[in-house]
Amino acid sequence: MRQLQGMDSSFVAMESPNSPMHIGNLLIYNPETAPGGFVRFKDILAFIESRMQLSKTIRQRLVRVPFDLDYPYWVEDPNFDLEYHVRHVALPKPGDWRQLCIQTARIHARPMDLTRPPWEFTIVEGLENVRGYPKGCFAMVTKVHHAAIDGMSGIDLMEALHTITPNTAPPNAPDEWQPEKIPGPVELLGKSYVNGIINPFRQAQVAAQSIPGVASAIKGLVTRDFKLTSDLVPPRTRFNRTISAHRVVDGRTFPLKDIKAIRALLPEAKVNDVALSIVGGALNKYLTAKDDLPKSTMTAMAPISVRSGEEKGDMGNQVSAMIAPLGSHLADPVERLEYVFSQTKNSKAMTNAIGARTMTEVSKVNPLLYMALGAQLFSRVSVAHRMAMPFNTVVTNVPGPPVPIYSSGAKMEAMALSLICLSDGLGLAHVVQSYCDDAYISFTACRDIMPDPEFYSECLQESFDDLLAAAKALDGKTAKAAPAKATHAKTTPAKPAPKKRATSKPAAKSAATPRKTASPRKRVGSSAKRKPARGSAKKIAESITEETK
Predict the structure, then answer these.
(1) Which pairs from 374-378 meet CB under 8 Å and 24+ separation?
(2) Are 464 and 254 in contact, with CB atoms under 8 Å apart?
(3) Whole-angstrom Cα distance, residue 540 to residue 256?
(4) Shortest CA distance to 319 belongs to which of 334, 331, 335, 307?
(5) Could you tell me which residues come within 8 angstroms of residue 532 by beta carbon, excluding any fewer than 6 positions away?
(6) What is the dihedral sign for C-alpha 428, 432, 433, 438?
(7) CA nearest 316: which of 360, 272, 371?
(8) Are the C-beta atoms of residues 150 and 316 closer than 8 Å to each other?
(9) Which CATH number is associated with domain 1-549?
(10) Using CA atoms, how far apart are residues 413 and 524, in angstroms rounded to an integer?
(11) Are 48 and 86 in contact, with CB atoms under 8 Å apart?
(12) ω into 94 cis (within 30 of 0)
């Protein structure tokens, strides 16, 4: 039995019928690599069962303290039933991308039973007309409660679900898992009494540890290492009000090489800056079409992992956050990227001064009773309608495996969508995920707030196209200027410039082309020729480069 931390407990406290606190993915697999070229549902069950020992999350359930007087506990579930957690559905005909998104949103919107281990996997068949993927593919919609994992601590689940070759043998070590007795109310209240005595000392210790961070922040303001600006104050938008229980999901796929090409517009920028600029441009286009664009920039909460190397496989959340202005008020893509870079640089300096780890440690000693009452008050009194939110949306960057991985022998074709939880005041959230040579920008939204997710998906594509066209135009100008320099060294002028200039025309054309709702840029089988990397799936997941930050 192990007690949750403060941040993990906050997700339990915030759970409501309209705001289930789980995250997940829509993963698409091609069974051609599996034995016999197909995968049955019973094969998936057997595969997961053979690898459950690799995950701490799979067989643990939550036990809450009466009246939420203390943080809940993780207990090895004595009534664990694998077939309850792994489900099986099929899309109706024609089985296209829109139907897959609708089914995924419905699955994601349903709360989980927190008296069982808080996860569900739903196998979805019938993907016969999802553009960009071969017939016969199937999908897996994953749901895991946010109290159990954050974006980086799901590595053990990825290892339990995947291998790095299609025919990797099950683990040799015996499964030594043992169920635990569910503690009764008296035992839990006794533990909470002891913790109530100890907790003030923990709070004092954390307060003392935070003093250097506060001093560093004050010094940074005085020396102007960073500054507090009005750009950090979010405007009120349609996304920041009370949400319903209904969800919509969608997203776009972009080649990583194009994301890195966009970085050439501002060499110091990171992939995360490009992603924030794409989201800012999409919001600009979407809200302009609705005649609802705020005059000031919208902001995003950008989570920052503070997980150390020793904590890679631990359950729970080790995360802080910074506020990132999105430049949504700027229509010009280059200006917006420059603006986002300068603002994130300022926010990073502020977060570093305080100490992201310090902010995480403070959350671990917050009394759960106050968090639970606060969450209930926020929801029941519709506070989201009455007060300004500290940010307009969420943009979280979660690096994925850089090489192909397999589940039940089937090759994962795409991490097509990443799913995230919403709450009152937060009706739209984004996830940036990478896998092999592609980057995926997905969003989850309240259906009542965003009834047209296809249009917002098109806005994401157009925002990306604008940035890519600007990068190609810059590349064309650079290539055109290069021969002029060579002329001084050689009397014979070079002639590659006209060819380079011609490549900028298709870029401009593509920006005006109607967007497809499916992942049109998916290159089927593009990674099939890669040699499987050696090592475990866990090592693969941990090997993400600095480029993805």
Answers:
(1) 374/13, 375/10, 375/13, 375/14, 375/16, 378/424, 378/425
(2) yes
(3) 18
(4) 307
(5) 164, 165, 403, 404
(6) positive
(7) 360
(8) yes
(9) 3.30.559.10
(10) 8
(11) yes
(12) yes
Closest CA to 264 of 441, 469, 435, 460: 469
Residue pair 357/307 in contact by the 8 Å Cβ criterion: no
**Unique residue bearing structure tokens 């503070």:** 306
Q: Would you state the structure tokens that stand for residue 232, as one six-digit string?
A: 């950090």
Q: Look at residues 282, 274, 281, 277 and name the one whose alpha carbon lies nearest to residue 258.
A: 274
Joined together, the tokens standing for residue 85 give: 């957690």
* C-alpha closest to that of 450 among 239, 231, 171: 239
Specify the amino acid at residue 31. Answer: P
Q: Is 203 helix (H, G, I), strand (E, B) or coil?
A: helix
With CA atoms as reference, report the closest residue to 72 among 2, 20, 16: 2
Measured distance between the N- and C-terminal CA atoms of the chain, rounded to whole angstroms:
35
- The rounded distance, in Å, linking the Cα atoms of 337 and 285 is 15
Per the listing, tokens 């700027």 go with 330
Which residue(s) pair with 247 in the sheet?
446
Q: How far apart are CA 408 and CA 192, in angstroms?
A: 43
Asked if residues 302 and 322 have their Cβ atoms less than 8 Å apart, the reply is yes
Tokens of 404: 């192909």
Global pTM reads 0.80
Element (H, E) at 311: none
pLDDT tens per residue across all 549 residues of the chain: 888 877 788 888 888 899 999 999 999 999 999 999 999 999 999 999 999 999 888 999 999 999 888 889 999 999 999 999 999 999 998 999 999 999 999 999 999 999 999 999 999 999 999 988 998 999 999 999 998 885 445 666 777 899 999 999 988 888 999 999 999 999 998 988 777 777 666 666 666 656 665 566 565 555 655 556 667 889 999 999 999 999 999 999 999 999 999 999 998 999 999 999 999 999 999 999 999 999 999 999 988 754 444 544 444 444 567 889 999 999 999 999 999 999 888 766 555 545 544 554 555 555 555 565 566 566 555 565 666 678 999 999 988 899 999 999 999 999 999 999 999 999 999 999 999 999 999 999 999 999 999 999 999 999 999 999 999 998 777 666 655 443 333 333 444 443 333 333 333 333 333 333 434 444 333 333 333 344 454 444 444 434 444
Tokens 């969800």 belong to residue: 247
C-alpha to C-alpha distance for 151 and 46, rounded to whole angstroms: 26
| Parallel, antiparallel or unpaired: strands 299-305 and 393-398 | parallel
Strands 22-30 and 410-419: antiparallel
Report how far apart, in Å, the C-alpha atoms of 492 and of each of 81, 168, 484, 498 are.
Answer: 77, 59, 11, 16
Residue with tokens 């999908």: 139
Residue in this structure with the two tokens 């249009």, named with its chain if needed: 455
